[in-house]
Structures are given as C-alpha cells and as structure tokens.
Design a protein that fits this description.
This protein is mainly α. The chain contains four helices and no strands.
Length: 70
C-alpha cells in the first residue's frame, strides 16, 4: 500500500494507482495479521503501511525512506 502511495505522485495518472488503495485496505483487513513482528515482512511493517496510506493525501511522514521509495 505504501508503494502505491509513493509511486502515484510520479505517475502521469496518479489515480491509476491511488484508486486501488480502498481495495488494498479491504484485503489487508480481511487476512490474519502476520505472526512475524519484523519490519519488512511482519506486523510492524504491515501496520505502518496500513495506517499511513490514504488515497487522497501525500505521505505525512518518511518512515519508509529506508525502503528507498522516496
């Protein structure tokens, strides 16, 4: 979800990406949380990505800078 949010502003048609955020949010909520608590594959990273992704807003913080998405 965070990748979609980061890629959208650089796209010619940002809504081609951000239009998928509601569906991705629904899918996120439909599955069990990861048992792993790590940042990249676990619940910590999942929670950060979910709570910071908003369809009509630019990212409010740069927690994902370590992923080189900025």
């Amino acid at each position: 979800m965070r990748v979609v949010q980061r890629v959208a502003p650089d796209s010619e048609t940002p809504t081609a990406f951000t239009a998928h955020l509601p569906q991705l949010s629904e899918r996120f909520l439909a599955v069990d949380p990861p048992k792993d608590t790590s940042f990249l594959d676990g619940s910590a990273g999942s929670a950060l990505a979910f709570y910071s992704a908003k369809a009509d807003e630019l990212p409010a913080c740069d927690w994902d800078a370590c992923l080189l998405l900025v």
